[in-house]
Amino acid sequence: MGDTEDGGGKKQPQISLVGLFLACMVAGGVQYGWALQLSLLTPYVQTLGIPHALTSVMWLCGPIAGLLVQPCVGLYSDKCTSKLGRRRPFIFTGCIIICISVIVIGFSSDIGYALGDTTEDCKVYTGKRLHAALFFVMGFWLLDFSNNTVQGPARALMADLAGSHGPSAANAIFVSWMAIGNILGYSSGSTNDWHKWFPFLQTRACCEACANLKGAFLVSVVFLSLSTVVTMVFATEVPLDPATAKSESEAGEPSGPLAVFKGLKNLPPGMPQVLVVTGLTWLSWFPFILFDTDWMGREMYHGRPDGTPAEVANFQEGVRQGAFGLLLNSVVLGFSSFLIEPMCRKLTAKVVWVMSSFIVCVAMAMVTVLGSWSLGDIGGNVQDAAAQDKGLKSAALALFVALGFPFAVLCSVPFAVTAQLAASKGGGQGLCTGVLNISIVVPQMIIAVGSGPWDELFGKGNIPAFGVASVFAFTAAVAGIVMLPNLSKSSFRAVSMGGGH
Fold it and tell me: Which residue did the predictor score with more confidence, 101 or 71?
């Protein structure tokens, strides 16, 4: 096998395709945790006494980490001269912090109990647990920052090692591990038997729902640890020459977030329009991403995380069904990912993007209608309404599945369009991708800050946010028709985001 030259001018030995697959295993381990985080943590934190209107604020850490952590870690990993290589030190350190943060989240109820939140058994106590909530939020934020610490170097590592296999093969492997991690994570989140398999997880502070979450997260720690070891063994990197790193530093070029903001004036034609449509598209998606399982628990199964035992049971059943829906969504996402490139070559990326926005518009409208119909009173309080039709639960599950296709579009087409525009200018891929990330994290911040108070204003549920999401999706579709550039069908090249928030 031949060698390839890395960014430091040294020869990187060519890795086999199987070796490349194993070298990327850490992506599956990280995605396992992402899936659990997305499906379980918004519902769970409400059992600790954090009101529904404030749960979305927790997710501010995601866009902040995406805006600041990933570019900075990317910069430092580019210049790292460790004997382990440029990427593996960050991957290894980040994975250790992920494991610590997951353990803090899983045992937050026990920590709060030890610090005096209550002396009552969790089977009878339904009040606030402030110490537990504090440690939960600390662990949650630490988890998001450490996830972002790993993701950037993991993607860069695949590019470094791809060699003659090419970026398409590296990207396909990365997405495959994404899908595996999602399927495993959502399967774990939809399982209600962790407390039976590991009865020692239940304590006076941690009842069934808590023990199930604890079990799922502890298994994710084991899987991530295994994934990290496999990646560290098979991803053999050539260390960066210190002299090369020094010369690059002395060049004085701005890097990280500074380079992104400074380079806004040098965007290729059509890129500003792509940023606008991307922002609108993500505004239509984040209410679902943040509140999907909570919506199933509250609006479709009429449960309450802080209600009677029967209401809590209903809520947890809805959360599990939502996690199962996300599992099916991930399967559709995986299959759809292989269809995106041929569709864009046949219809153009613009048509596929606009079509997916219209699908999301209809789906979010249906989420709003199903929730209101299930509650039996569109203008009433979502906490107290009774179920009207059990068949609506199946329809809700079907919506989760159907959204797998537009999510595949979301994770690939904007990045592929960006790559084409950058190539048409003769470079600037890093700049354009960094700017595109801004149009993703800003909508996250808007939804994280605004959706909780907005839902509080209209009845302490999730329905209003989904109604607004439908409006944003329609606006994104119209803006796409008017603003997106018409790009060549034949030059389309699929580029995936690679997972995460």
Answer: 101
